[in-house]
Write a structure and sequence with these properties.
It is a single chain. The chain is mostly helical. It has one domain. It is built from five helices and two strands. Helix 4 packs antiparallel against helix 5. The longest helix has 24 residues. The protein is globular, with a radius of gyration of 18 Å. It starts with a helix and ends in an 11-residue tail after the last strand. The model has no long low-confidence stretch (mean pLDDT 84).
Length: 128
């Protein structure tokens, strides 16, 4: 199995976690919805499902990775700062996501931008 495929599997695991979380937010019991409010709960569910959609589509996968990393970073910050607990699940999900991104697209971690090295001269732009 290639590194790219292993990376895709790791990214898929994070996508499955976000998909499950998004579906659970749509199907919460009435007590939970009343306690948290319908607006924030549905907004979070829609955001999670949009991130999953971006991860599934090949052309938007890198955008999905960036959005998922940001969203999970927010989960980590909320767990740590507001709830006062150690965000083990968020740290594991973000580690899987970063590891998957590094394996799926190696140029993410080796200093290249979009498949080209940073230190190579780019196209020259003429000033106006």
């Amino acid at each position: 199995m290639s590194k790219e495929r292993i990376g895709l599997i790791l990214i898929g695991l994070v996508g499955l976690a976000l998909l499950g979380s998004g579906i659970m937010k749509f199907t919460q019991p009435a007590e939970m919805v009343e306690a948290m409010g319908v607006g924030p709960l549905l907004t979070l569910a829609v955001v999670e499902l949009l991130i999953v959609a971006a991860l599934i589509i090949a052309r938007t996968r890198m955008l999905g990775i960036i959005l998922a990393a940001s969203y999970i970073g927010g989960i980590i910050a909320f767990s740590w700062l507001v709830e006062g607990e150690t965000p083990i699940v968020g740290i594991i999900l973000n580690s899987l996501l970063y590891g998957g991104a590094a394996l799926h697209r190696p140029w993410v971690t080796d200093g290249r931008v979009g498949g080209t090295a940073i230190d190579q001269p780019g196209p020259q732009v003429q000033p106006l």
